Amino acid sequence: MSSDQVATGVINLSEGDSSLANEIKELGGEELMECIQCAKCAAACPMVLAGFPFFNKRIIQAIFLGLRDALLDDSSIWACQSCNRCTEVCPREVNPFEIIQAMRRVAIREFALPTLSIEGLKSLYDTGHAVYLAGAGNTRAKVGLPEKPPSTVANPEALKELQAVIRKTALADLGIIPMDESGVKETCEV
Amino acid sequence: MKVGFFVGCNTAFNRPDLEQAVRYAFPALGIELDNLEGQSCCPSWGTMPSVDVVGWCAVGARNHTIAEEKGLDIVTVCGSCYGSLAESKYKMDTHPEIKAQVNEILKDIGREYKGTSNVRLAFYYLYHELGPDKIKEAVKHKLDGLTVALQPGCHTLWPSKVYYDKEEDPFHPKVLKEMCEALGATVGHYTRLIDCCGMGAMRSTDMEKSLKLVEKKLISMKNEVNPDLIVTGCSSCLIQFDTAQELLRSGKKINFEIPVLHIMQVLALCLGADPERVTGLAKTDVRRVVNRILEGL
User: B97 and B182 in one domain?
Assistant: First the structure.
């Protein structure tokens, strides 16, 4: 969106990117065109309550209008809680949550993703956990648990398996995080 | 009876006292827990699900196959794990082409997703498999005289189509309420009962907006219920309610503190667990309410 448009609130339809809707449909948002903009999803959305400029109904509207940059320049799509109230109430089975996820998938293909997502993906690949706290061993011991949970962090073979799976997914093709064989450690203490 | 315990990330690393509560309560109720050795992250929403559908399902499917090989259902206390695993299962079970692509990936590590294990939230599992009456008979301590406010959690309810355990009406949930009432608590209703707590992606993206949601909820609870305790159905809600109150107090948004526990922590206490092990990491001061539970009134 140009600064003039932001200032006036007027959307120039001829500047819209008509390929965006097709991309969304290919990346999991198959039901996009079923949306009738009734806004039932918006009435149920925590992002509306919290005051984000884009939320389910407006994200879908922006996709219809091809406003790719407006969506990529704003952090709203990354604030979606994946709570799925919208999926529950949608009278057209549009699955608005999946469309927001599809918009994230579009953003990732343009490397427009937040640092936290990159870190989460890297941590997932390196340890098997998107959330991983290095000092957790002490906390666990304090309540009488082994320092490592019985997951990939305590099981190097399982971690290798997971990494082999991830290397076969779109994440590897996109090159968002390094995943060289040589960089893989036997045990991961990130 | 035996189930696979999917511990996830936040419970294992942030609130292992909740993990310990599950490890105490299930055997105390006669249900053996399997560790699902080698499990990984579910994966959470901001990672693989935000990259592509097949990759999301493939990482989820690897977890599912660990339970399938043992012929066990999966239980978890984390809303995100519950939601992500149930949704990857739903996608693979209803879309043969997704399942086929996932199994093509899993072939290399000698695994195959079949779809034979269900994903269950710990307290729904206990409610449906044992029922509130059996749980009531098993407990040593009760919540008599305590007033609680509930935080069921978004992922425990929606989208109902992907879940094995369903509420009659997910916008008027009653399972968590009936569990607390069976333990002897008075459950107060408040207007913002089913609102989101703001934890998760919203908190990572915009702390201020996230805190606004939990502030609205806390004020609604305080004014309408004035609870002795907040009981959550989700580990993420537990972390948000437990850590946000101090931030809101220092920002002069609230002037009170309400202790917060997950339903599995409450249940473990009632079954006789060591309070340090199952509630020892709470940031809100839970000692007084824990003592009331353990000593009766």
Answer: no
